[in-house]
Amino acid sequence: MTISLKGTLVLIGAGKMGGAMLEGWLKAGVDPKQVVALDPSPPAEVAHLLQARGIRHNPPIASISNAEVLLAAVKPQVMDEVLAPLHELGAAKPLILSIAAGKTIASFERHFGADAAVIRTIPNTPAAVGRGITAMASNRNVTAQQMDLAEQLLSSIGEVVRVEDEALIDAATAVSGSGPAYVFYLTECLAAAAEAAGLPPDVAVKLARATVSGSGELMRSSGIDAATLRQNVTSPKGTTYEALQVLMADNGMKPLMIDAVKAAARRSRELAS
Fold first, then answer.
1. Is it the case that residue 246 has pLDDT exceeding 80?
2. Rounded to two decimals, what is the model's pTM?
3. DSSP label at 15?
4. What is the dihedral of CA 118, 119, 125, 130, to 10 degrees?
5. Is residue 95 within a helix (H) or strand (E), and if so which, with residue range?
6. CA geometry: angle at 181 spanning 175 and 186, to 5°?
7. 8: left (phi > 0), else alpha (psi -120 to 50), else beta?
8. Residue 203 and residue 210: Cα distance in Å, rounded?
9. Sign, CA torsion 197/203/208/214
10. What b/e string do you get for 26-41 counting C-beta neighbours within 10 Å, with b at 16 or more?
């Protein structure tokens, strides 16, 4: 993947997620001279990267010219405070790209104008190891070229999907944004079940972690759908079959997961501002 920028990419917030994206952009050929990082106290490893690659760090706002993209990667609760002094950067009509949970497109339009091109996204924590997935939705001002550029930038941390309606970002948040926690909890439950079956705690944890991570990698690398992979490992009337009779019962895992995702989506809508 090659990222081609015509102007300046302003990274607002160079924390773990912002730093992971920055590293991906540089690997994709982005010229460090085209990047500006605004963050009062980035992590040590990101600060080192900024210095090593000669990236402008916290220059005077007035010195930033030809802003093509403003990527907002700060915590939602401080977003308004951080964006307030950056209003003048909107004069260049940049793409506003947000990876902050809960901040609506309208909240960025209030800062940069109703004619601002805004894309709202929700990445997830596996982005830190380049295995994330990000859902994105735009307002009517975003051009096809800007959508493509946003996808290129977000692809530095994993896969990207587009949704037509911003309201669907709440559902995406509930599935992929919160989803890693569900997988981690599944791992905890599997380890607890292993202990209940008599295995020592350290062996139980090791078996559970390797099983979940290995199964995920198999699903990713094989490209085979989850249902087929499940069927492939399920012998008629065998041990897996017996376990699945419990997990796939009418009151089993599927209705629980549906209820969990509904709850998360509802909370995402409540928190949006």
1. yes
2. 0.92
3. S
4. -120
5. strand 95-98
6. 105
7. beta
8. 11
9. negative
10. beeebeeebbbbbbee
